[in-house]
Amino acid sequence: MSRLVLVVALIIAVCGACVPAARAATFNVTVTTDAGDAAPGNGACATAAGQCTLRAALEESNALAGPDLVRFTLATPATINLTIGSLLATGSVTIDGPGSLQLTINGSAINNQVLVLNPGGAAIETYAVDGLRITGGFLDGGTRAGGGIQAAPDTGTDQATVTLTDVVLSGNEVVSGGATPALGGGLWMGRGTLTATDCRFESNTLSGNGNDFAGAGVYIHDATALIERCEIIGNRMPEGLGVGLRVREGTTTVLDTAINDNDVTVGSGPDSFGGGLAIGTGAGTPATVIVRRSTAGSPMAVAIPPSITRRAGDHCVPIVGTS
Ligand SMILES: [Ca+2]
Ligand SMILES: [Ca+2]
């Protein structure tokens, strides 16, 4: 074997192990209208009108293997008013907005979450969302969870790694229905990892005639979470557990965060605990919440609901207003 053939053979042998990873694609959203991609998976973010909408970018990203990047070239401040339904992101993607004061995604109060991350996904997908505001989510049906963002909705199979930076979730609503509770007016996080930095969860609402409400601002089902330099303020629900933040299972750390003015609108007493946050009562991993260097001005700021059987491991370490 000549030296050249040997070298080529070696290169082929070595690179046989380097199966090319799915190439990350970048899609640049240039219009604020709402329409789907005309041909998902052809590599081009383009509606039938040839425009790259946010929905088309995500549909194209979903159809292509591997993580992708969605960016925006819009005159700001801009608002994308959804007219079709939830935006679904089934595979890993970064949604890189220009800033929470510069871009709003409005669910338009039609019956849907605004953004759903990794629905029905067997794999752990990774999502980074930064620099945008999500409002106008309104959900009266289905899972009744996560009016603004619902991540990893199937707690049996879905997991997601979610990073939110400079994201505002405000003015989203979930309505309870019969035996189905309303959970997570702003954000509902299922299983996986959540990191929220410089975010605001404000004026989100749970409503309806049911009697099971939790986490009008944020509901964490069973995740490892870090909430840092955020505000959880002005969220409302009729009664229930943890108006601002509800942590069902897993470990959540809250740093340098204001949890203020979260309150029930109807209930009081034994049915309502934790205006600021409530933890525990899940069936699996005990919940731990660590609060440091934060302010909590809500009524009943921190609570482990005493009326529910508390597992030995559920605990909260509140170090409020100190370092
Ligand atoms: Ca396409
Ligand atoms: Ca993809």
Give an overview in words.
There is one protein chain. The chain has 323 residues and is mostly beta strands. It has a domain at 107-320. The chain contains 2 helices and 27 strands. It has helices at 3-15, 54-63, and strands at residues 26-29, 68-72, 78-81, 87-89, 93-96, 103-106, 115-117, 124-135, 138-139, 149-151, 159-170, 173-175, 182-183, 187-197, 200-202, 205-207, 213-214, 218-228, 231-233, 236-237, 245-255, 258-260, 263-264, 277-279, 287-296, 302-303, 315-320. The chain has an 8-stranded parallel beta barrel with strand order 11-14-18-21-25-22-19-15. It is globular, with a radius of gyration of 21 Å. The protein binds calcium ion (2 copies). One calcium ion binds next to loops. Residues 61, 64-66, 68, 91 line the site of one calcium ion.
Helix/strand layout:
Layout lengths: L2 H13 L10 E4 L24 H10 L4 E5 L5 E4 L5 E3 L3 E4 L6 E4 L8 E3 L6 E12 L2 E2 L9 E3 L7 E12 L2 E3 L6 E2 L3 E11 L2 E3 L2 E3 L5 E2 L3 E11 L2 E3 L2 E2 L7 E11 L2 E3 L2 E2 L12 E3 L7 E10 L5 E2 L11 E6 L3
Parallel strand pairs: 1-2, 2-5, 3-6, 4-7, 5-8, 6-8, 7-10, 8-11, 9-12, 10-14, 11-14, 11-15, 12-16, 13-17, 14-18, 15-19, 18-21, 19-22, 20-23, 21-24, 21-25, 22-25, 24-26, 25-27
Bound molecules: calcium ion (2 copies).
One calcium ion binds next to loops.
